[in-house]
Q: What sequence folds into this?
């Protein structure tokens, strides 16, 4: 029999905790081993239970989800934190990734998407819901100093150059060329792989794009992670945002 994935749920709303516990308990390979109503309670429960995955809300009393995630990452690194929250603004996403979260879902995710995300982070992968990927890509596309596509302001008249139509186009900071300047230690192939990681591509998708084997992609991923000083895709994406 396949070992069950042990899960701790952390959310300050009892109805959310109860609903998640009911839904996840129906999944054959999941076992909910405890629930917490705030971040501090979650940290203590995770330290005691050592679950495989912690589902972590962000807006909680006593200790917020990002701070709790940082504690869990430092004190119980074998537990993968998967953020499950109502909010998908860029500040919350980057804060969670910096804290060490391996995945980020919004609460409108369906049961199948949630189950797949739990299995992914339990296996050491990173996962993001579609709205979160959109925010991350928008942040990468935004000029430095702005809040990302969703939060950036329109160009004002004072921003326009005399005789021009506005600000000059800004190069994509996630392109291999831009990554060459920011991360000169990476090889050309590693920069290509990194650019695709920043687009949210899986190893299989990267392999198809670059016409190489998945094993080759894994080798490049491991090498660039070592050079960047990160341990997983979530941290690599946070670093690629230029704000890690």
A:
């Amino acid at each position: 029999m396949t070992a069950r994935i042990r899960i701790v749920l952390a959310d300050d709303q009892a109805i959310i905790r109860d609903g998640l516990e009911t839904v996840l308990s129906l999944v054959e390979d999941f076992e909910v081993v405890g629930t917490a109503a705030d971040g501090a309670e979650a940290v203590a429960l995770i330290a005691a239970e050592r679950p495989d995955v912690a589902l972590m809300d962000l807006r909680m009393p006593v200790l917020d989800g990002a701070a709790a995630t940082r504690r869990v990452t430092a004190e119980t690194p074998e537990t993968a934190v998967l953020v499950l929250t109502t909010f998908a603004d860029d500040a919350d996403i980057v804060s969670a990734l910096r804290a060490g979260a391996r995945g980020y879902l919004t609460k409108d995710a369906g049961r199948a998407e949630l189950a797949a995300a739990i299995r992914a982070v339990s296996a050491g992968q990173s996962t993001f819901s579609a709205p979160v990927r959109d925010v991350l890509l928008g942040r990468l596309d935004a000029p430095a100093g702005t809040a990302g596509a969703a939060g950036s302001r329109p160009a004002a008249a004072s921003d326009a150059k005399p005789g021009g139509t506005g600000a000059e186009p800004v190069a994509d900071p996630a392109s291999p060329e831009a990554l060459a300047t920011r991360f000169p230690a990476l090889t050309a192939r590693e920069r290509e792989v990194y650019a695709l990681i920043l687009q949210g591509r899986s190893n299989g998708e990267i392999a198809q794009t670059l016409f190489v084997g998945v094993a080759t992609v894994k080798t490049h991923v491991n090498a660039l992670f070592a050079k960047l000083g990160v341990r997983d895709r979530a941290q690599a994406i946070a670093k690629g945002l230029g704000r890690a």
Notes: Confidence is low (pLDDT under 50) at residues 144-171. The chain has two domains: 5-130, 171-244.
